[in-house]
Amino acid sequence: MSAAAAAAAAVTPPAVDEERWYQEQIDYVRTQVEQMEHVDVQRGQEAKSIRSKWKRELFLLFEDPSSSPSAFIINVFVTFMIIFSAILTTVETIPKLRKGNSHVWFALELVIVAIFTLEFVLRFLGHTDTWRQAWNHLKSVVTIVDALAIFPFYIELALHRDTSYEFRFTILRIFRLLRVFSAFKYSSLLQLSIEVMIVAIKRSSDALLAFLLFVALTVVLSSTLMYFAERGTWDEGRQAFLTPDGEYSKFSSIPAAAYYSIVTLTTTGFGDMVPTTFFGKLVSFPMMLSGILLIALPSIIVGRNFTHVWEAARRFRVRQSPNIRTQRIG
To answer: Packing angle between helix 254-265 and helix 278-320, nearest 10 degrees?
Structure first.
């Protein structure tokens, strides 16, 4: 057997090994799906443990859109307002639209903040059956982001000034878009895509970690070489490295050269730092070629695992729900 044939045989597993590999993928996907479903089970158990009837209904209204038509409508409305708020926050930064229309933007922001404040209060009341439940709700990441996106508006009103020049905390409303992904569990295709992507990335973690280690070593080595090639000569009077033209060198340190290496390896090429010496250009050439691999390899690693895990997940979903047509998830 030739060396090429031996290598091909090593890469292409036998049918039995392939079936075993797919079974491992299916088992892994089953574990991930069960973990996701366990969250919904815990939420249902938490709702049943609430003693107050109106608090239980309030909890289900905001936490479980599938509990009733009203809960579903509220979930859709809140999701729409989150998306609308994110778009409004983005568009508001355009100077031409903001100029002379500050009262319009203030009115829109007032309405949005009022809606989010009402949702925040009602959602909190649904988690106040016990002190422990209320504390767990308050310290959750979602609640903290919601609070940071709402309360700065009231601080601005109290101080009678715009704090956007210091820091625009309302930009944190953009992070509320993460809550939109909770609606994906009602779409089989979207849910399957997210699950497969998560599993594929986890399956690729070892290869990606090795790849990142290779990139880090490349950056350290290339930035060190670029530093010694492009730093210039030291000027005692100015206490800095100078180029032959008498200007301050942009490759004045290894971290500065590392910035150039990263920009070059990622094929970005801002052009703010350019090598001028022959040795510096010689070092830059293999960095440019390595940048092509930098973009291609992660796509190949994750893409291959995504294809295999998608097929495994599709087979698992078909076995799990035989009444669902294959084309809805395939």
So the answer is: 50
For residue 260, the model assigns a pLDDT of 92
Phi, psi (deg, nearest 5) at residue 241: -80, 135
Q: What is the DSSP letter of 183?
A: G
Burial of 280 (0-12, 13-18, 19+ CB in 10 A): buried
Model pLDDT for residues 167-184, shown as the tens digit of each residue: 455 555 566 565 555 555
Tell me the residue type at 318: V
CA–CA gap between residue 62 and residue 320 (Å, rounded): 29
DSSP-assigned states of every residue in 231-255: S-EEETTTTEEE-TTSSBPS--SHH
Q: Long-range contact list for 299-306, CB < 8 A, 24+ apart? A: 301/204, 301/207, 301/208, 301/211, 302/200, 302/201, 302/204, 302/208, 305/200, 305/201, 305/203, 305/204, 306/196, 306/197, 306/200
Between the CA of residue 283 and those of 218, 232, 241, 262, 270, what are the distances in Å? 11, 16, 20, 13, 18
Lowest mean pLDDT among 24-33, 70-79, 119-128: 24-33
Reported pTM: 0.55
